[in-house]
Amino acid sequence: QVQVVESGGGLVQAGGSLRLSCTASGLTFDDNAMHWFRQAPGKEREGVACIRWNGGSTVYADSVKGRFTISRDNAKNTLYLQMNSLKPEDTAMYSCAADRRYLSCSASWSRIREDNYWGQGTQVTVSS
To answer: What strands lie across the sheet with 78-83, from one edge to the other?
Structure first.
């Protein structure tokens, strides 16, 4: 049984930093591209970042480019999202997903695919 569990969320002031983690079990971790998504209240879920199976390439949403860094440690089956210079508009539930179709980040990486392996999410709140 595949399990995906996020951690590291919390309350932080604008300009601060947080590091999210996502641990996956029950799958071969390096057989999957990995994604971070987020959903703010009243808004649709959106793609934040994607990383290739070996960490060799990454893709970011324009809204987080230069502030967020996605990385992975395949030996620990863990995905990370380092978030710096946080803004109130970054407030959202952050979820990670293991891509069941691709090893790399496809052109449609930010598309929501329900058949991917999803975690329950971790809340990030940025106060102004």
So the answer is: 3-7, 18-25, 78-83, 68-73
